Amino acid sequence: MSLIHCIYASSATRSFEVADIPSLLEHARAKNARLGITGMLLYIEGSIFQVLEGDAGSVDSIYTAISADRRHARVTQIIREPIAHRAFEDWTMGFESLDRGQASRLLGVNDFFATASCLERINPGRAKKLLFAFASGRWRADQTGVHVARARVA
Amino acid sequence: MYTSLARASRNDVVSSSISFAFQPIADIESRTVFAYEALVRGPRGESAQHVFSTVSSGQLAEFDHHARIAAVNLASRLGLSARISLNLLPGSLHACPGSLDELLGRAQESGLALDQLLIEVTESEAIERPGEFIDLLNRYRVHGLQLAIDDFGAGYAGLNLLADFQPDLVKLDMHLVRDIDRAGPRQAIAKGVLQVCDDLGIEVIAEGVETLGEYHWFRRVGVRLMQGYLLARPCFEALELPAFPERLGGTEVMARDR
Ligand SMILES: Cc1cc2nc3c(=O)[nH]c(=O)nc-3n(C[C@H](O)[C@H](O)[C@H](O)COP(=O)(O)O)c2cc1C
User: Fold this and answer.
1) Looking at chain A, which terminus has fewer C-beta neighbours within 10 angstroms, N or C?
2) pLDDT at residue A23 above 70?
3) Is the pLDDT of residue A147 over 50?
4) How many CA atoms lie within 13 A of B159 on its CB side?
């Protein structure tokens, strides 16, 4: 079994709202549990960021399903690579919804991810860095966020 | 049994003819050492150039392999708790395919965790053998081995490399770092590289930082990993701490300049 993670960003379609996510997740978590998939989903005002981790075959097949899902568009794979450890071991799919203001305010806090439950003990590494980038505006549909680097020193 | 004996004696020959200097890669935000880069030296501190001049080209890959193991052993004896960054000579994995397996084994025997190991490969090496290189390194990343592309930005092809392979770190080419605080074109290129690396979750190391001007420029754009004479010179057979600039009034200065 080879462990990988696949991380992508997308835009929710107009008819798909944050209120629709819990029912989506209910089904997704059951399926993820069956397939040994863990990860997290971050939703910021219509922009979606998801980390999927697990066995390569399972991750790839879920990702294929997700990328064809009409509830979101512009599904952009950011990274797919082998990993040594899962970053979200205890989460069949963590979920956090933030507005832009919350996201950028939280970046100033020393440990941004301590404030979101599923991000509490995330290992440093690629998934965390990319979450940070997304929270600061990268990979978002509007692309209006602050530069990560600048946010980091602030 | 014969093979392991032969290997042991060859190891001894290599380890008695080489040693290492260690130069810290500093995390300027947490003021800790992120890693020590192991730099080949002679047994009495002779330069790397001198050491390599004694190795025939046919033996280079094997020499390189044993050097990495010797570096890990020495660093572990010196009480390494940070990461150790090991260079990979161009072509040496090709010539010595089991090298990383043995390195991982030896590192564990010396009490190091596998995620303490960082391998540096030059940009030109990575570009020369893309497919092979990527497959090979990805295999070891499963064990936690981290990968840095050295001399990044030396050629523009470096950015293209990231289309197919995303390392954990890149080390910005020294020529890009030199006088960056006063050179617009270098700043523009470095900012481009930083943006790409931020988007892909790749950590950037500014290498060869020699002046406070360079230090401040990189700090301002959010680069937290730095290596260079400003912070610490390579130190023979010792793991020295870097000299972090001190806050003085509104700016940071080196204690030794006050
Ligand atoms: C933003 C988003 C995230 C999703 N995440 C997952 C997931 O983590 N796991 C999953 O099985 N399905 C997820 N889905 C749903 C899949 O696209 C697909 O509908 C589902 O896997 C099909 O399940 P089924 O094979 O039981 O019909 C997600 C869909 C969207 C729009």
Assistant:
1) N
2) yes
3) no
4) 13
Beta carbons within 8 Å of B197's beta carbon, 6+ residues apart:
B170, B203, B204
Find the DSSP H helices in chain B: 2-17, 48-53, 60-77, 92-95, 99-109, 123-128, 130-141, 157-161, 174-177, 184-200, 212-220
Q: Which domains does chain B have, with CATH numbers?
A: 2-256 (3.20.20.450)
Q: Nearest CA to CA, how far is A62 from chain B (Å)?
A: 21
Number of domains in chain A: 1
- Ligand 1 atom closest to residue A66's alpha carbon, by position in its atom list: 17
pLDDT band at B214 (very low <50, low <70, confident <90, very high): very high
Name the amino acid, one letter, at B134: I
CATH number where A69 lies: 3.30.70.100
| Stated pTM of the model | 0.86
Whole-angstrom distance between the N-terminal and C-terminal Cα of chain A? Answer: 42
| Global ipTM | 0.79
Sign of the dihedral through C-alpha B135, A58, A95, A33? negative
Residue B17 has pLDDT above 90, yes or no: no
Average pLDDT of chain B to the nearest whole number = 88
- If you take atom 17 of ligand 1, which residue's CA is the nearest one? A66
Q: Which has the closest alpha carbon to A97: A87, A106, A88, A110?
A: A106
Which residues in chain B are closer than 8 Å to A125, comparing Cβ atoms? 168
